[in-house]
Amino acid sequence: MSKPLVIAMPKGRIYEEAAGLMKQAGYHLSADAEESRKLILDFPEQNIQVMMAKPMDVVTYVEYGAADIGIAGKDVLLEQDRDVYEVLDLKISPCYVAVAGLPNQPLSRIAPKIATKYPKIASDYFRQQGEQIEIIPLNGSIELAPIIGLTDRIVDIVSTGRTLKENGLVEYEKITDITSRLIVNPVSYRLKGEEIDEMVNGLSKAVEVEQA
Ligand code: PRP
Question: Of 79, 96, 143, 157, which is best to mutate to test ligand 1, by the most ligand atoms within 8 angstroms of its C-beta?
Answer without folding.
Answer: 157
